[in-house]
């Protein structure tokens, strides 16, 4: 007889269902009590270190709502799925002015010692500065020039996020870093251990993102225990976090001062001194207080002379001040003690390159990048290693450009600018109609004789207005430039010499307001060769109006396409792509250069992008 058809069978089924129901509520009760007692034990009896509870948060708070409740029990029992946590899209602060308006969708990342673009007709400069952004890597990959022609147009997904800085890649940990991870920093002195529960309670608020409440709690602790280093350090961290939340330079300055107070207290554990002064130096640098950051870094090195990483940071602080000699001395000291330090090698190679010691810079840049150590995976180092190899005739340059592209530092092997807005149309050569600036092009071509005559009057006067190119872009020859607008600002002293030309341009804001470009005359003497190079940003296009062009011998290559200038005609190209110039005529070549905003940039972007 079938059990399912019998009264007894129905009873068995009901009994089984009842048992399952009881089991569910039993588990629910047990887990709820477990969560409740854990909370009581932690808060009132300091039974569990909050760092441990944080690690277990994913177990007890199964549904991700910040506490343990019935929904957590359902997740643990498999009755509902665990929700997927979506990473916050809120942009971290990346501007020195925390009140500055951020572009919609802009991903500004505060990073140390990122490359800064040149303000001239040049590649990203050898000046060492910070920049809070990442490079575009959405443009379709392209092969080196010998293997693939450049398409006429490469379209990319639309975006308005500026990326001048860089995709973080997992880096190879040094032996010291692995040891540091094993050894937990000791931030509490003997007295602070006696008030650990009160410190933990305030710290828990900070970890939950309740920065205002955490700050009030730490301020009360500092008032109660003024000699406690850990309480004051917690106050500094809460001020730091709150400054980031409300975008306040004033609050961040308070944090910087509080970090200083921590280090000046008696009986501060060495690990806490190191943590607080390192953070102070970083935030001073963020605020643009570069000299203060340098002083803090020097103090750290004095206190911890055996810590190579602090010495490396001191070298960066010198570079950010433009003190290449001081940085060079620091890295020579580091390499004397740690000859295989990859961080010191790439920075030392960078300095040698800035001194135009091309061949000497190559092994340091190459070995530093090959080390894979933290701080070496930077687009600037790939850029300058490739550039140095190109200048010595080494074809492996494009291997390094390709590696930089794979790491997300370059939009492509050809397009190696470092200050980029992704999503902009990317092609080496442009037609006037494609730019939407046909009125400007027609005006230049219609008035080219007027523009030429004013330029010749300055050139013939020998007034010293044409200044020599000084960024080591020339292999041979002479190349002078006379600037009328720089970073969107009119050079009034220059316009006095060419008033008609400046008056003509006043009506074209796409050029005169271009903060990432220039308007200038360029004269190149016979026998000049300009190395292959790229401009600093994809945010501009460059117009060349031919003024005095010899019949033969003058040409410009952009990617693998070479063209020649014509008098009275405008050439338009994107100088973020690799380009090279030859002047092999018997007389000088004179052109007028007008940079314009990339036509796909919005008005908001044009107003808020930083100058280059």
TrEMBL record:
Bilayer-crossing residues are 24-45
Domain Aspartyl beta-hydroxylase/Triadin as annotated: residue spans = 20-78
Regarding the membrane, this protein is recorded as: Single-pass membrane protein; Single-pass type II membrane protein
Taken from the record, one Pfam family name reads Asp-B-Hydro_N
State the residue spans of region: Disordered.
104-185
Segments of skewed composition (Low complexity): 149-163
* Boundaries of every Aspartyl/asparaginy/proline hydroxylase domain copy: 445-599
Q: Kindly list the GO CC terms recorded for this protein.
A: endoplasmic reticulum; membrane
Q: Return the Gene3D superfamilies for the record.
A: B-lactam Antibiotic, Isopenicillin N Synthase, Chain, Tetratricopeptide repeat domain
Q: Does the keyword Disulfide bond apply?
A: yes
Q: What is this protein called?
A: Aspartyl/asparaginyl beta-hydroxylase-like
Organism of origin? Sinocyclocheilus anshuiensis
Gene of this entry: LOC107664966
């Amino acid at each position: 007889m079938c059990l399912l058809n019998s009264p007894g069978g129905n009873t068995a089924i009901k009994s089984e269902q009842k048992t399952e129901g009881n089991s569910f509520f039993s588990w629910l009760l047990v887990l709820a009590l477990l969560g409740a007692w854990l909370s009581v034990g932690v808060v009132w009896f300091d039974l569990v270190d909050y760092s441990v509870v944080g690690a277990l948060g994913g177990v007890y708070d199964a549904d991700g709502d910040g506490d343990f409740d019935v929904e957590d029990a359902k997740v643990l029992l498999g009755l509902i799925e665990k929700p997927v946590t979506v990473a916050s899209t809120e942009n971290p602060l990346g501007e020195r002015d925390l009140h500055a308006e951020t572009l919609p969708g802009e991903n500004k990342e505060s990073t140390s010692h990122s490359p800064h673009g040149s303000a001239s007709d040049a590649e990203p400069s050898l000046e060492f500065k910070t920049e809070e952004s990442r490079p575009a890597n959405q443009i379709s990959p392209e092969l080196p020039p010998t293997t693939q022609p450049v398409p006429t147009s490469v379209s990319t997904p639309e975006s308005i996020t500026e990326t001048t800085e860089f995709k973080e890649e997992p880096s190879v940990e040094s032996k010291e870093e692995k040891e540091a991870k094993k050894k937990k920093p000791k931030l509490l002195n003997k007295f602070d251990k006696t008030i650990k529960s009160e410190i933990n309670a305030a710290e828990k608020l900070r970890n939950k993102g309740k920065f205002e409440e955490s700050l009030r709690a730490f301020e009360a602790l500092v008032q109660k225990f003024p000699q406690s280093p850990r309480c004051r350090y917690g106050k500094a961290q809460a001020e730091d976090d709150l400054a980031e939340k409300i975008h306040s330079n004033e609050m961040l300055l308070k944090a910087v001062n509080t970090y200083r107070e921590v280090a000046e207290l008696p009986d501060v554990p060495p690990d806490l001194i190191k943590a607080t002064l390192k953070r102070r130096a970083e935030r001073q640098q963020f605020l643009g207080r570069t000299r203060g950051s340098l002083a803090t870094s020097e103090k750290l090195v004095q206190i911890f002379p055996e810590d190579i990483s602090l010495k490396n940071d001191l070298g960066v602080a010198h570079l950010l001040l433009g003190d290449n000699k001081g940085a060079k001395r620091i890295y020579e000291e580091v390499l004397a003690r740690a000859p295989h330090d990859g961080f010191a090698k790439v920075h030392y190679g960078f300095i040698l390159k800035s001194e135009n010691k091309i061949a000497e810079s190559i092994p340091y840049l190459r070995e530093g990048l090959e080390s894979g150590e933290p701080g070496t995976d930077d687009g600037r180092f790939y850029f300058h290693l490739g550039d140095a190899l190109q200048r010595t005739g080494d074809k492996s340059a494009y291997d390094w450009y390709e590696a930089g592209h794979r790491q997300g530092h370059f939009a492509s092997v050809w397009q190696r600018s470092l200050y980029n807005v992704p999503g902009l149309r990317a092609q080496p050569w442009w037609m006037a109609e494609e730019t939407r600036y046909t009125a400007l092009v027609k005006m230049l071509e219609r008035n080219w004789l007027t523009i030429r005559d004013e330029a010749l009057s300055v050139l013939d006067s020998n007034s010293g207005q044409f200044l020599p190119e000084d960024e080591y872009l020339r292999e041979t020859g002479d190349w002078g430039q006379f600037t009328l607008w720089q970073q969107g600002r009119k050079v009034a002293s220059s316009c006095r010499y060419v008033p008609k030309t400046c008056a003509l341009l006043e009506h074209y804001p796409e050029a005169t307001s271009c903060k990432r470009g220039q308007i200038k005359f360029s004269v190149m003497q016979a026998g000049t060769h300009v190395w292959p190079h790229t401009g600093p940003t994809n945010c501009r296009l460059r117009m060349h109006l031919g003024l005095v062009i010899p019949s033969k011998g003058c040409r410009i290559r952009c990617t693998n396409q070479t063209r020649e200038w014509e008098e009275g005609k405008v050439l338009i190209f994107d100088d973020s792509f690799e380009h090279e110039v030859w002047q092999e005529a018997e007389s000088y070549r004179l052109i007028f250069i007008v940079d314009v905003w990339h036509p796909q940039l919005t008005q908001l972007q044009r107003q808020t992008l930083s100058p280059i």
